[in-house]
Write a structure and sequence with these properties.
mainly alpha, Globin-like, 0% strand
Length: 153
């Protein structure tokens, strides 16, 4: 077997995806089921629904984009080509919103996915939330120390 660092990027991505699929059983159908279930909860959530409703009137294009995003995040598929930070950085959200987002995401993943897949999705979701929260803080001129969370004034 060829060393991963000696593979071309496409081969490296394919090997990574194969390992993830073998370990978690995640596939595109599972991603769609998770994303649809999660955003059903978002649309009914007292805290998050208004934030999303302000930006999204037609949910299906957003969901299609999220299928590609989570395929890239969970399976290293390369299907997503957007810039999530640009889309989120000026939203009126802070640590409490990210906590709620993660709470809903984790509950949905645990309900709809096998344990190994749920763990994988949740790990990636936590990384996404942390990255977005740090980016929002930075744009707001706030430097977070380790363990600090972003709170809007």
């Amino acid at each position: 077997m060829q060393r991963p660092d000696a593979m071309d990027p496409a081969a490296r991505r394919a090997a990574m995806r194969a390992e993830i699929v073998a370990r978690t059983s995640i596939d595109e159908a599972m991603i769609e089921k998770l994303v649809r279930g999660f955003y059903d909860r978002i649309q009914k959530d007292e805290m998050l629904a208004p934030v999303f409703a302000e930006k999204i009137s037609d949910w299906e294009p957003h969901l299609q984009n999220m299928f590609a995003f989570w395929s890239s995040v969970a399976l290293a598929s390369g299907a997503y080509h957007g810039r999530p930070m640009e889309k989120h950085v000026f939203l009126p959200v802070d640590a409490a919103h990210f906590d709620r987002w993660l709470q809903l995401f984790e509950a949905t993943a645990r309900e709809l996915c096998p344990p190994a897949a749920a763990d994988h999705f949740i790990d990636r979701a936590r990384r996404v939330a942390e990255s977005l929260e740090l980016g929002m803080a930075q744009v707001a001129g706030v430097t977070l120390k380790p363990g600090e969370r972003f709170k809007r004034a």
